[in-house]
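input
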Amino acid sequence: MSKIEEVRAQMVAAMKNKDRERKETLSMLLAALKNKAIDKRADLTEAEENEVIKKEIKQTQETMDLAPADREDIKEECSKRLAVLKEFAPEEMSEEQIRAEISEVLNGLGITEPTGKDKGKIMKELMPRVKGRADGALVNRLVGELLK
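output
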């Protein structure tokens, strides 16, 4: 079952339950997924669907962060939207899982004592393996710690 079908089913359930806020969030997510599929002119892969969901989460988080302190209504609405959106987000990798991927990449490249010069090679090999499942800034920090 694709994310579009899953979101559509959840939206129908929200309409039946008369949960207007959840329905609106799901409608927004469904529109974003459909627009991406239309732009691509083909069905989305799971990675592309996850990318759209993460983008929506990031935009909602930014809206919440940039809202003025006295606008509790905006912050509350954004936190409810985030709760709904995170239901569909892929599970993030833990630091331990990322460290395990880093060691696999190091073994694959035959690097025993990584230096700053090796960072480009390591990241080039590592990022496609963790894309969509790990935060790039966290991966960069962990690789940086390893090089010190």
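quick obs: The radius of gyration is 19 Å.
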